[in-house]
Amino acid sequence: MISKRFIRPGDAVKKPVWIALLLAGLLVFSLSPVPAGACDSQSESARCLPSFPDKDGWYGGDGAYSIRLDEKRVLWLFGDTFVSREEGRQDRMDMKVVLGTTLAISTCTTDNEFKIQYHLKKKNGEFLSSFGEKDWLWPQDPFIVDHMLYVPLISVKANPEIKGPFKFEIVGHKIARIKNFEGADPNQWIIDYMDLTPGIPKGIRAFATTSAVYRDYVYFYPLYSATRDGLSVFGNILARIPTSKLDNPAQAIEYLTKDGQWGKKLDPAKVKIVFNAAVSELSVRYHPDDRQWIAVYMSIRNNGDQMLYQAADAPEGPWTEPKVLLGSISEVDPKSLRYDKDNFCYAGKEHLEFAQGRNLVVTYVCNSYEDFERNTSFIRKNLFLYRPIVKNPSH
Description:
The chain has one helix and 27 strands.
């Protein structure tokens, strides 16, 4: 199956090639600085803006989390990915899907040209997931602490008993830790895995929906859904792990409560809903020019027809009311040639590595509720679907 990203209250988590919605500066901060030489007056054509061409065997994936590895390289992580050895494909008929995670590394040339190389892993001639050959692991928002790269992962298992097109379920959470990411080829990186599952309470559908390293903690905004004693809680909460406890993170998770305290017990009656967005993917990034944190995500209403943002002076908030960043999404607009009744859009996030002033660089992905295994499905016939779409709005 492919991954999909929307979760609705009471639903099993759903995802086809589409990491579903479950329907990405300060002290040790892992956010990237504005590229040297960037300025608001540059035209879009003169800027290094991301793009995702079909090449190196890659023909579309979702997720599109990014992180700056060094002054030159940005790492991209994609969810379930269409792959083919054939170059120049115009559709995805009979194309295979890598269930899990694929990687790419991008650079910007001296002429501000964006270059990307997909590093698809292969074994015995077959494409494989970059993480967990025997596991189905979706990527979440990576971060760097003390010169080590951490990639949170969602563990997924197929479940043919689930009704509907997305027959899978979330069974755990892991973190991949990489010490030698200076190497040019990600397939040569040495990876060890830490199991977060014992420390993740029931009700958390996606833990590292976004990650932010700030002062002595890594902050996360888990997607949480719980019902107890007639009380229903649904939305994105706030969790953190001390950077000094990343060797054993499962035992060190703390959650923010309504009264502003931090505790290791997740109580649905006391936990604070930080975002009512209830999304499994977003970005929370610090903008030093504005001295504000900016959260970016896709609305779960109307199949993801808007990208929204909120601002705050601190990771805990208080956050401003949601405002529209992108109000027209062609793939879910009935007046657009890209529209299909089964389309939905998700995975909205910002990529601070490419920001310039108040102009954000954001991506989202559009998917289909239609069964992707059918060769006549919309997602198989149309390469524009199920790949990161790049926009450059101002906030």
